[in-house]
Amino acid sequence: AGNLAHAVHTPLNILGNAAAHDATPLGQLVREQVSSASRQVDHHLARARAATAIRATGLRTPVLEPLQALLRTMRRLHAGREVHFHLASDVQQLEPLAFRGEEQDFFEMLGNLLDNAGKWASSRVELSVQALPGPPGQGGQLCLLVDDDGPGIPDPAQRNRIFGRGERLDEQRPGTGLGLDIVRELAHTYGGSIEAHPSPLGGLQMRLCLPAAPAA
Q1: I need a labelling partner for 7 at 20 to 30 A (CA). Which of 110, 123, 196, 209 fits?
Q2: Quick one: fold of 59-211?
Q3: Where are the domains positioned within the chain?
Q4: Phi and psi (nearest 5°) for 125?
Q5: Which tens digit of pLDDT belongs to each residue from 189-212?
Q6: 141 and 209 in contact (C-beta within 8 Å)?
Q7: Residue 144: CB partners within 8 Å, gap ≥ 6?
Q8: β-sheet bridge partners, residue 73
Q9: Helix-then-strand count for the chain, H and E
Q10: How far is CA 78 from CA 107, 118, 120, 142, 203, in A?
């Protein structure tokens, strides 16, 4: 899957670069289709990587450093709209926590949720982590909560729809509609879950639960 993804990305990048400064309808069409194809390649590569990872033993991705790196990235990415990203959990409590899976998949899932929250937030996004214990000798679960103060989605049926491939509730917002679908499939592949709820901040809360690695 990795070799195939690399082989497909190369011609896609060439096409995208060739059409980057083409203002004609054809250029726009090429850019849109290249972007869609690249997301599809990344989507299926992530699924293949996760399917392999769950059969491996000893996988352990400490969560604190990726959390902090993603928050720094999101602050820069959404600085133009003055959206503030805040880590609501105590850093010392996060230090021993680890995800039982690949670091790249952790970045993919949480990065999608934070970026999505940043697009909809009025001014604030909060990230918190809950550690749920499991049976002795096992790692339990990590639940990551991403809250925003945006308009939210009051209708439960619409909240479920956002995880469908290609679903976009507002065509004016940037994106392909694939991000949350990737998060859901990756979470399910690892034996986790993703749900959308009303947020205490007034917007949307995304609750991502993943298997935790046993303590080192």
Answers
A1: 110
A2: Heat Shock Protein 90 (3.30.565)
A3: 1-53, 59-211
A4: -130, 130
A5: 888 999 999 999 999 999 999 999
A6: yes
A7: 110, 113, 127, 128, 129, 207, 208, 209, 210
A8: none
A9: 7, 7
A10: 17, 7, 11, 26, 17
